[in-house]
Amino acid sequence: MSTTSIAPSRSFWSGTADPSELAHWREVAEGVAGQLGRDALERDRRGEDPTVELELLRDSGLVNLLDPVEFGGGGGHWESAFLAVRILSRTDASVAQVLAYHYINSSNIGFAAAPEQQAEWHRRTVEGRWVWGDSVNPVDPELVLTADGDGYRLDGLKRFSTGASAGDIVLAAGLVKGGDRDGQVLFVALDHDRDGIAYLGDWDALGQRLSASGSVRFTGVAVGEEDVVGALGEEPFSTLITPGIQLAFGNLYLGIAEGALARGAELVRARPNAWFLSAAERYRDDPFVQRVIGEFASRIAAVEALADRIGRRFDEVVDLGATVTAQARGELEIEIAKLKVVATEVGLEVAGRIFEVTGSSSAKTAVGLDLFWRNVRTHSLHDPVDYKKLEVGAWVLNGELQPISLYT
Fold first, then answer.
1. Is the separation of the CB atoms in 257 and 347 below 8 Å?
2. Where does the Acyl-CoA dehydrogenase/oxidase N-terminal domain start and stop, copy by copy (predicted)?
3. What letter would DSSP give residue 9?
4. Pairing with 323, which of 3, 44, 171, 284 sits 20 to 30 Å away (CA)?
5. Are 239 and 185 in contact (CB under 8 A)?
6. Rg (CA), the chain
7. 142 half-sphere exposure, CB direction, 13 A CA radius
8. Domain 136-231, what architecture?
9. Sign of torsion, CA 55 60 63 67?
10. Where are the domains of the chain?
C-alpha cells in the first residue's frame, strides 16, 4: 500500500453533532424511509436498479449530508449519516446500502484527496447531486491503470460494485503500471457513462436485490489526472475509511432488526385470537409472545446504545485530522468490530425468529416478512464476522491491533 496520501492538518468534519442536527436528519430519514416502505417488497421482487429511489435521496438532501455548508452541502456529521443509514434500513436496506457506500466513497474527498483539491470535488459533487458508487472490491483481481501520455487507461473487471450502475460516479481503485506513479493504487472518480465502462447487471443475490451491486468491466477507459481523487495510503487518518464502512454495516444490520421487529409487532397486533391452549384471550397478551418480543426489543436497545456511542466516537477521531495516531485508529476499529459482531447476530436472530410469534400466515410471500432476513443474511456475508471476534479477542487478551487493510 502506498504512503503518499496527504492528510489535512485538521478534518473539515469538525466537532460532533448536536441534538438539533441529529433531530433534523432523523426527521428527514424517517420521511424517506416511510416513502420507501410503501412498495419496498414490490420493488425488491422486480430487482431493478434503484434509479428512482436515488432521486428521492437527492431531493431529501441525504446525499449531500456530509458535504460542507460552504459548498451547498448539509454540513452534517458522521453520526447523523450512520443514523440515516440505520433508519432507511428499517424499510429498505438495499437503498440504505447504496447510501452508506455513497457516504464512504465520496468521503475519499476528505480522506484521500489533497487539501487544495477538496473544494473543487465538493463543489462538483453538491452541484451535480452526485451519488458515488464504487468498483473497489479488494478480493477481486486488481484493476490496472496503465500510464498513457498525460493520463491512464483503466482495464479490468470488478464484482460487487455497489451503486455503480445506478449512481452518477464510479469510484474505482486501480494499480498504476508505468509512469511517475508506478506501483501506486489510485482512487479515480469516473462519470457513469464514460466510454469503456460496462455494467454487467449480474447481481442476483438472495437479498439486497436493489443495491445495484453487479459487476463492472473497464476496457481502455480514459482517465485524466483530473479524475484522480487520491492514492491509497497507510497513514491513520486516510485509513479511517475502512472502520467507517464497517460502522455503516453495523447500522445497516441494526436497522434491519428494528424493521423486522416493527413489522412483526404489527402482525402480532393484527391477530385477534390467542392460541387455543393459551390462557390469554388476545394473541398480543400471550406471555410467550410477549417474552420473545421483549427479548428482541431489549437486545436491539443494547445494540442501539453501542452504535450511538461509536457513531459519536467516530466523529471525535475524524476531527483530529493528521494528528490521529495508529493507536487511536486501532482502538476505534476494535469498538466498531464489537458493534459488527453484536449487530450481525441480533439482526440475524430477530429477522429469523420473528416468525415464531407472527405465526404461519406470516410466511406467505404476500406478507414479505422474509425480506428482512434475506437482506441481513445476504449482506452480513460481506466479510466473516468470526474474524471480527478474533480482532476483539486479540485486543482484549494481548493488546494486539490488526494490520491495516480494506477490511480492518
1. yes
2. 27-128
3. S
4. 171
5. no
6. 22
7. 14
8. Beta Barrel (2.40)
9. positive
10. 19-133, 136-231, 238-398
Cα–Cα dist 346/328, whole Å: 27
Q: Domain 19-133: what homologous superfamily?
A: Acyl-CoA dehydrogenase/oxidase, N-terminal domain (1.10.540.10)
The pTM score is: 0.94
The DSSP H or E segment spanning 154 is: strand 151-158
The span from the CA of 369 to the CA of 360, in Å, is 11
Residues pairing with 175 in the sheet = 144, 185
Instruction: Return d(Cα 234, Cα 1) in angstroms, integer.
Output: 7
Q: Compute the distance between CA of residue 313 and CA of residue 336 in angstroms, rounded to an integer.
A: 10
Q: Are 54 and 220 in contact (CB under 8 A)?
A: no
Residue carrying the nine cell digits 433534523: 24
Indicate the DSSP class of residue 136: -
Cα 357 versus chain centre, distance:
30
The residue to which cell 449512481 is assigned: 167
Residue 356: partners with Cβ closer than 8 Å, 6 or more residues away:
292
CATH topology of domain 238-398: Butyryl-CoA Dehydrogenase, subunit A; domain 3 (1.20.140)
Please state, as a whole number, how many other Cβ atoms lie within 10 Å of the Cβ of residue 316.
Answer: 15
